[in-house]
Design goal:
The protein is of the alpha+beta class and 445 residues long. The protein folds into two domains: 61-186 and 338-403, Periplasmic binding protein-like II (D-Maltodextrin-Binding Protein, domain 2), CATH 3.40.190.10; 189-336 and 420-443, D-Maltodextrin-Binding Protein, domain 2 (3-Layer(aba) Sandwich). It has 18 helices and 16 strands. The chain is globular and about 70 Å long. The N and C termini lie far apart (108 Å).
């Protein structure tokens, strides 16, 4: 009886051992992760082989950067932008021996589900899904900075990257003395005029009024790009006019300093041009540069403000249009440049270094210049614009970019801009004099 029990126990142990071996053999093949969107499966070797160990180490060392960007500045953009950018990124990855990969994640430019909205909503509840770096509208960079997401770049980027930017681009990325963003592509506005009516437009408002030149530019309240933007704002051209009239924008902080006399000068020009019927009857309905372009294209106007991007794309449609700087109080008005900029959001040092390498690679003039041209934007560096070749218009753009300023910033700017736009509307409607409107804008009363 004991012998039978012993034999049964022995057979049971043998069965369990064989079952365990079969289970071990049937386990799934282990997978080594290369990147979030690309995995490689390696079959377990029968005996250890050196090359298998080396391959596993190489895959483990690969770093994949997650990059949030709008579609028009991505490898998925339509030709020629997308294929060109894809080639630039592939060259970057190859130059680093395949140890750094770039994973572009497309986001809407603005609004619900857009870049800023995703950053703001993900930060408190799902910080792990935040990207390593992002491309943002320069106008929204300040909000990213206020969230504490923008990482300092001064010790990460080669000095020549920021030193070779146009002045407005360098200043647009600086907050409290630190570089937190790097503009990649830019845009600005200038005048187009009917060459069949004049040889050259005047450079001052006095010339516009005295020569009775019809002129259209955005003067109504601009439409905010998203709900995150200010509900009331003033046009960038107003800032240009204000600065040309003697107003001040602090070069370091980019805070707008309100002064009564420059405001009276700008609002006085608006009143005089409106009373002389040089502005469109529905001037307050002109809220974008596209509106001004369309109004000019319909004929009957001598001058209009347009974006450089629109002129580059559609200048053949207006063969008799010339280009010139915007008139100002005593000299041409400086332009307020806009665009899109790089921000690093990761706090991991290794990822920060890799992200900075990518920015330096793509912002280099030999790559950013051709990319901006392909995308229909302007480069953020003079050397980038040089890659376009020589033409009178490109030389003109270089002069405007060299003297351009960035959009004003600061916690008080939204309220200031709203008061300025109310002053503009009151003067154009004839309900308030320029002096009274300027005083109200200054005091908020």
């Amino acid at each position: 009886m004991k012998r039978a029990i012993t034999l049964s126990v022995f057979l049971l142990l043998v069965g369990l051992l064989l079952s365990s071996c079969r289970a071990a053999t049937a386990q799934p093949t282990p997978t080594l992760t290369r990147s979030p969107d690309a995995t490689r499966t390696a079959a377990p070797p029968q005996t250890p082989r050196p090359q298998a160990t080396a391959t596993a180490a190489a895959i483990t060392d690969t770093l994949t950067l997650t990059w949030w960007t709008p579609e028009f500045l991505s490898p998925k953009a339509a030709a020629p932008t997308g294929p060109l950018l894809a080639a630039q990124i592939s060259a970057f990855e190859a130059a680093r021996g395949g140890q750094v990969r770039v994973n572009p994640v497309l986001k809407a430019r603005y609004g619900k589900g857009g870049l800023l909205d995703f950053l703001r909503t993900a930060q408190p509840v799902a910080p792990s899904i935040l990207p390593d770096l992002v491309v943002m509208d320069i106008a929204e960079v300040e909000q990213v900075v206020s969230l504490g997401l923008a990482q300092p770049l001064d010790d990460l980027l080669p000095r020549e990257i920021t030193a070779t930017l146009y002045t407005f681009a360098r200043q647009a990325g600086q907050f409290d003395g630190r570089t937190l963003a790097v503009p990649w592509v830019a845009d600005l506005e200038h005048v187009i005029y009917d060459r069949e009516r004049m040889s050259q437009p005047p450079s001052t408002w006095t010339g516009v009024v005295s020569q009775k030149l019809t002129y259209v530019f955005p003067i109504g309240a601009p439409q905010p790009p998203s709900a995150a933007g200010p509900t009331e704002d003033v046009q960038p051209v107003f800032i240009s006019h204000y600065l040309s009239a003697g107003g001040a924008l602090d070069a370091r902080s980019r805070r707008l300093n309100l002064q009564e006399q420059p405001l009276v000068r700008v609002l006085g020009f608006y009143r005089d041009a409106n009373e002389a019927q040089l502005l469109p009857k529905n001037a307050l309905n002109i809220i974008s540069l596209d509106d001004a372009w369309n109004a000019f294209g319909q004929g009957g106007l001598t001058m209009a403000n347009v974006s450089a991007r629109r002129y580059l794309a559609n200048r053949d449609a207006l063969p008799t249009a010339g280009f010139a700087a915007m008139p100002g109080w005593s000299n041409p008005a400086p332009v307020v440049a806009r665009g899109w900029a790089w921000i690093i959001t990761t706090t991991d040092p290794a990822r920060q270094r890799a992200a900075a390498d990518l920015i330096a690679w793509l912002v280099a003039p030999e790559r950013s210049g051709p990319l901006a041209q392909a995308a229909g934007w302007l480069p953020s560096t003079p050397a980038g614009l040089d890659t376009w070749g020589a033409s009178p218009y490109f030389e003109f753009l270089d002069g405007l970019l060299a003297t351009a300023v960035g959009q004003p910033v600061g916690p008080e700017y939204a309220q200031t801009a709203a008061r300025l736009q109310k002053a503009v509307a009151a003067v154009l409607r004839g309900t308030t004099s320029p002096a009274e409107a300027a005083q109200t804008a200054m005091t908020g009363k």
